[in-house]
Amino acid sequence: MDKTAFKIQTFEEADDHYGPWENKSTGERLDAACYLICMAFKVKPSTKLDRTVFSKRKHG
Q1: In this predicted structure, what is the pLDDT of residue 2?
Q2: What is the pTM for the complete model shown?
Q3: Exposed / middle / buried, residue 38 (Cβ in 10 Å: 0-12, 13-18, 19+)
């Protein structure tokens, strides 16, 4: 594990994690979240979910 990727912080410093996102609109934050999710799963933002893959049924 690369321990140089993190730094020791006080609780107050760690709690101040919003930074510039605090001033962004909800839409801008959702767009950024969508981008990060797409990068994590290696898909394009225009990719649509194929809802025919799964089915639902009641337990009987």
Answers
A1: 66
A2: 0.52
A3: middle
